[in-house]
Amino acid sequence: MVTAVLFDLDGTLAHTDPIHYQVWAELLENHGITLTPHFYQHHISGRQNRCLMADLFPHWALEEVDRFAHQKEALFRQRAQQLQPLPGALAFLQRIHRQGWGCALVTNAPRANTEFMVEILGLGPWLALIILGEEAPAPKPDPAPYQLALERLGVTADQAIAFEDSLPGIRAATGAGIPTIGLTTSHSPQDLRAMGAIAAIEDFEQVAKLAEFTDLFEGTL
């Protein structure tokens, strides 16, 4: 039986990809790189900044990488002031809380972005734990952040379920052995399932429908 629910942040609890894409496109254009949706989905979305920047600019020193990343995330926060949770997200978090289940945020977002979004989305009261990829032994797609969340919540993988939107995120959660449901904010249902998601939904208002064809929630939702 499920006793803990783990969530990604960007693209899962809020539809942030349009803002991230716009900022990445503007900054990369200054370096002669024209961003495309395909490149963003497969090389940027869901990845930790230092890891993806090492692929984009392998000749850059770490200080230059961090300076670029800080600029990018500051622009994101500036443009995300009106960000809203995905439909049904807060109600679902409240229901998890009433069930007495563990609830964790597991994200590759940097700390400043995470704190900003937790506050602006009103997530704080419902999260028992926040795991940052940059503070785990390795970021997603490595399973380490999810393994750390399971350890700190005191549950096993078969007692948990994860919600993710990105391919690296699904790879990380399923790599930790956690049944994972994909959010279709950034990838198609087919891509999410191909990476290992057991189901795909548009938002958290569909969780009730999801419970109709899986026993993961054992009728409690």
Spell out the blueprint of helices and strands.
Blueprint: E1 4-7, H1 17-29, H2 37-44, H3 49-56, H4 62-79, H5 89-99, E2 102-107, H6 111-121, E3 129-132, H7 144-153, E4 160-164, H8 167-175, E5 180-183, H9 189-195, E6 199-201, H10 207-210
Parallel strand pairs: 1-2, 1-4, 2-3, 4-5, 5-6
Helix pairs in contact: 1-4, 3-4, 4-6
CATH architecture of the largest domain: 3-Layer(aba) Sandwich
Low-confidence spans:
none
CATH domain class name of the largest domain? Alpha Beta
- The percent of residues in helical segments reads 40-55%
Distance between the termini: 12 Å
Structural class: alpha/beta
Element-by-element helix/strand order: EHHHHHEHEHEHEHEH
- Describe the main β-sheet briefly: 6 strands, parallel
The CATH superfamily label of the largest domain reads HAD superfamily/HAD-like
